[in-house]
Design a protein that fits this description.
heterodimer; A: about 110 residues; mainly beta; six-stranded mixed β-sheet; 11 strands; globular; B: seven-stranded mixed β-sheet; four-stranded antiparallel β-sheet; about 50% strand
């Protein structure tokens, strides 16, 4: 079966760095997405990785290793507004998005 | 770019009535639109995928006669919840992707519609 695993919840301190991991097992691979979802709101797109390596976008970076079925989202200089759920999703060989359950990130002052 | 709107943002209706939710891609042509449902503190659940001009593909367990989807144009898809019941109360979110550029692989989400059935 297809499976996306990410931690349920993480806590970090304002100003610090946090890494949210995602491992996947899917039938085929056409890219991995990270979305941010604040409570009560719809997801917003953060990043898309289809090749191995690190993609940096401001305070957020996303890494992919296709051979290991592994990705992480790195958030630097954490701000209180970064408190949200972070969703990992993989596009399989049929171009269907397989969603992880999301990681709730709690930022403490 | 890649903006998706949804209307209404919030709706309260009586049990047994039907509710229509609109999803529009504002600055790109959405060849494919997706409808999700999310219950409180749970993950997104894909309900159906619709391609412009053709019938929607429903996920297992989603009643196609209850959740009517129409994708009549490249910028508009509608979801009609027919004979709504309290258990249909949820957060309904649409997303869209297009054919070219940044929208080709990425799904862009609308802001969601919160439905409360009394």
């Amino acid at each position: 079966g297809q499976n996306i695993d990410q931690p349920t919840e993480m806590t970090a301190t304002e100003g610090a760095i946090v890494q949210i991991n995602c491992t996947y097992q899917t039938s085929g691979f056409n890219g991995l997405f990270w979305y941010q979802q604040h409570a009560g709101e719809a997801p917003t797109f953060l990043s898309y990785n289809v090749l191995d390596g690190l993609e940096e976008k401001g305070r957020f970076s996303s890494f992919l290793s296709r051979s290991k079925g592994y990705s992480y989202l790195l958030l630097k200089e954490l701000q209180m507004k970064d408190s949200a759920s972070y969703l990992c999703a993989v596009m399989d060989s049929n171009y269907q998005l397989i969603w992880g359950a999301g990681t709730k990130l709690i930022i403490k002052p | 770019g890649a903006v998706v709107s949804q209307h209404p943002s919030r709706v309260i209706c009586k049990s047994g009535t039907s509710v229509k939710i609109e999803c529009r891609s504002l600055d790109f042509q959405a060849t494919t639109m997706f409808w999700y449902r999310q219950f409180p503190k749970q993950s997104l659940m894909l309900m159906a995928t619709s391609n412009e001009g053709s019938k929607a593909t429903y996920e297992q367990g989603v009643e196609k006669d209850k959740f009517l989807i129409n994708h009549a144009s490249l910028t508009l898809s509608t979801l009609t919840v027919t004979s709504a019941h309290p258990e249909d109360s949820s957060f309904y979110i649409c997303s869209a992707k297009g054919l070219a550029g940044v929208t080709q692989e990425t799904q862009y989400f609308g802001p969601g519609t919160r439905l409360l059935v009394l």
